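Journal club side-thread
Mid-discussion, someone asked how the predicted structure for our own chain would compare to the paper's figures. Pasting it here so we can look after the session.
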Amino acid sequence: MRQLSEDEEDVHLNEGMQAEENIFSIDYDVWLDESTGEIKIEKYDGHLIALQCNNCGFYTMKVLKEELLKKMKMVHPKELLKHYQCSYCKNVRATAFTVSKKRRGGLQVAKARLQRNTRNIEMVKIDLPSALGAKRSFEFKSIEELEKFLKEFDFDKVA
């Protein structure tokens, strides 16, 4: 079997699969057996995090904006509301997350660990500003994915 190039494989991927590849949440490899014409499609996690859309089922749901929900002054914890939009079918949703309690003098921070412990990390988010003032946010499933992305990253291609 021969692995098709990125340009050749798009013929065998539906629009949703192509949308997943375009936002780097899923990567597909397409293999062709030239003697029989059999096609095999393999699916891999991509470099960036996207949630599965409840409407179309593709992993194309990205954070559109975030807002801190302000409650009464003395009520803790506060909530962070993340607004998501599917880059394929344009479906929207919002999810609230609890934010750490605030102590006098700053946020309550866990003690720093000397050892690198990445087992309990669910997501890593970075904001990358360009020299022209543009800013892009990226979310990753692990530190390793972030490191790999940063090695390959070219802001001019995505800005």
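Post-session note: The longest strand covers residues 61-69.
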